[in-house]
From TrEMBL:
Lineage: Bacteria, Bacillati, Actinomycetota, Actinomycetes, Pseudonocardiales
Protein name: CubicO group peptidase (Beta-lactamase class C family)
Coiled coil location: none
Organism encoding this protein: Crossiella cryophila
Domain Beta-lactamase-related positions: 12-331
Pfam family, one: Beta-lactamase
Length: 446
C-alpha cells in the first residue's frame, strides 16, 4: 500500500472550512495513519457562547456507544464470563424469547428498536429491559435478518451488569475505557457528574439560517445504546483496539481472534442504508479490496463517526455538535480520499433512476410501539412521519429503494427500501435507518 501523508495544517484547515460551510457550531477530527495520530478542532462548544472546542472536549457520540458496549461484552467473552452463541436467558430469565449475544450485537435478534425515550424516561436499565423484553413482539424471528435495535443493546447492558455485578456505567469505564486511558462522560447516568467541557447539541436549519441548542433526551434504560460522550481523540483511541498493540502502545485487551470475529459480517446481517454488512458491534464497509469497520451516531443535535481499517492501520474519528454534521462527514470522506485515505463509508446516494411509487406503499408500519407513516408529498416525493411527527422526505427510486432527506435540515441521511413478502408478493415492510417495520393491520391500500 502506498505511503499516505496527512499534514496537521491541512487537516485543521479542511475541518475549519467544512465547519463553516455546513454551519456546524463545533467539531473535532482525529486521524491515525503511519503510526501517528493527528487531531484538529474547530468552532465552539455552544453556538454563540465563545468557548472554543479543544482536543479534550467531550461530544455526545450517540449510537457509537454501541460499539463500546459490544467491545465490553466481547472482553467478557474472552474471560469466559459470556458465550457468543449461548441463550442469554441463562443470565436474564426475565426475557421472553431465547436470544444469543451474537444476535444482539449484530442486530439480528428480531427485537424492536425500543419504546420512545419519553416512555422510558423514568425507568432504570433493569426495569427497562424487564418491562419491554418479557414478551417481546419480534419484528423478525431471531437470527432471520437485520433490524437495528436500541432495545437489543439495552439487553446487552443488563447482561453485562448481571455477570460483572457492576452497573453498565461502572463496567464500561473500569473494564474497557480506563485501561485505554479514556475518562468518559455520560449523557445520562445514575449519579451524573457535571462537566463544563461537554459540547451542547444543536438543531441547525440551513434554509432559515437558524441554530439553536437542544437538550439530550436519552432515557436511563437506553444508556448502553447511546450514553457516552467522548472526544474524537478518545474515540479514535478506542478504535485502535483493533490494531496491533505493539504499534499503538495500548494495552493488549482484545484477543486477535475475537477482534477478527467482531469485524466479520454476521449471518443475516444486511443493514441496507447503513453499511455493506454488520459484524459484532460494528458496520462493515467495503472500499475496493479494503474493509473498514465503524459506527455512526446521532444524538440530539450531534453527529459522530468512527472508522477503522485494521489491515492498513488507519483510523478516523469525527465528532460534531450540529445535526448538519452528517453532511460535513460525507464531504470530509471525499477530502480524505484526495490525500489517499479511502475511508469506508456508505454513500448517501441511491442506485437506480427516480421513479413513481405504487399506491400500496402509503400507510402505516409498526416496529414495536413505533409507528412509521408514509404519505404523498409534493413533486412525487413521500413524507415519512414517526409517531405522527414528520421527520423526512423520501424520494423513490427503482427497486423500491428511496433516498431520505431530513425534513428540518434538508440533509441527506441513510437511504432505505420497501419490501414485499417473498411468498405473497404483498408490499408489507419498510426498512428505514436500518429498522424494519411491518404493515399495520388495516393500513394502506393493499
Amino acid at each position: 500500500m502506498a505511503q499516505v501523508t496527512v499534514e496537521a495544517e491541512w487537516l485543521s484547515r479542511t475541518l475549519s472550512t467544512l465547519v463553516r460551510k455546513h454551519q456546524v457550531p463545533g467539531a473535532q477530527l482525529a486521524v491515525h495513519v503511519n503510526g501517528e495520530t493527528i487531531t484538529a478542532e474547530a468552532g465552539e462548544l455552544r453556538y454563540g457562547g465563545g468557548t472554543p472546542v479543544t482536543r479534550d472536549t467531550a461530544f455526545p457520540i450517540g449510537s457509537v456507544t454501541k460499539a463500546a458496549t459490544a467491545a465490553l461484552a466481547i472482553l467478557l467473552v474472552a474471560d469466559d464470563d459470556l458465550e457468543l452463541d449461548s441463550d442469554v436467558t441463562e443470565h436474564l430469565p426475565e426475557l421472553g424469547a431465547p436470544l444469543t449475544l451474537r444476535q444482539l450485537l449484530s442486530h439480528t435478534s428480531g427485537l424492536a428498536s425500543g419504546p420512545d425515550s419519553a416512555v422510558a424516561a423514568t425507568m432504570s436499565l433493569r426495569r427497562f429491559v424487564a418491562e419491554h423484553c418479557r414478551t417481546p413482539e419480534l419484528v423478525l424471528p431471531a437470527g432471520a435478518g437485520f433490524s437495528y435495535s436500541n432495545l437489543g443493546y439495552a439487553v446487552v447492558g443488563r447482561l453485562i451488569e448481571e455477570v460483572t455485578g457492576m452497573t453498565w456505567w461502572e463496567a464500561i469505564e473500569s473494564i474497557l475505557l480506563r485501561p485505554l486511558g479514556i475518562r468518559p462522560a455520560f449523557v445520562v447516568a445514575p449519579n451524573p457528574l457535571t462537566s463544563v467541557n461537554v459540547a451542547s447539541g444543536h438543531a441547525v436549519n440551513t434554509s432559515h439560517g437558524r441554530t439553536r441548542p437542544v437538550v439530550q433526551s436519552l432515557a436511563m434504560g437506553e444508556a448502553p445504546a447511546g450514553a457516552l460522550a467522548l472526544s474524537a481523540a478518545d474515540l479514535l483511541r478506542f478504535g485502535l483496539l483493533h490494531m496491533d498493540p505493539a504499534e499503538t502502545g495500548l494495552p493488549d485487551l482484545l484477543p486477535a481472534e475475537l477482534a477478527a470475529e467482531m469485524r466479520r459480517i454476521q449471518p443475516g446481517a444486511d443493514p441496507i442504508g447503513l453499511a455493506d454488512g454488520w459484524g459484532l458491534g460494528f458496520g462493515v464497509f467495503r472500499t475496493g479490496v479494503q474493509h473498514w469497520i465503524g459506527h455512526d451516531g446521532n444524538a440530539d443535535g450531534t453527529d459522530a463517526h468512527l472508522r477503522v481499517n485494521a489491515d492498513s492501520s488507519q483510523a478516523i474519528a469525527f465528532t460534531s455538535n450540529g445535526n448538519t454534521g452528517i453532511g460535513l462527514w460525507a464531504e470530509l470522506v471525499d477530502e480524505l480520499a484526495e490525500v489517499g485515505i479511502e475511508v469506508g463509508s456508505y454513500r448517501l446516494d441511491v442506485p437506480g433512476r427516480r421513479t413513481t411509487v405504487p399506491p400500496e406503499i402509503f400507510g402505516s408500519y409498526l416496529n414495536g410501539d413505533t409507528e412509521y407513516t408514509v404519505s404523498p408529498a409534493e413533486d412525487a416525493t413521500l413524507r415519512l412521519a414517526i409517531d405522527g411527527e414528520i421527520v423526512a422526505r423520501l424520494t423513490p427510486h427503482e427497486g423500491l429503494m428511496f433516498a431520505q432527506q431530513d425534513w428540518e435540515s434538508g440533509q441527506l441521511v441513510h437511504p432505505g427500501r420497501f419490501l414485499r413478502d417473498p411468498v405473497t408478493g404483498v408490499l408489507d415492510r419498510i426498512q428505514v435507518s436500518g429498522r424494519l417495520a411491518r404493515r399495520a393491520v388495516g393500513s394502506g391500500r393493499c
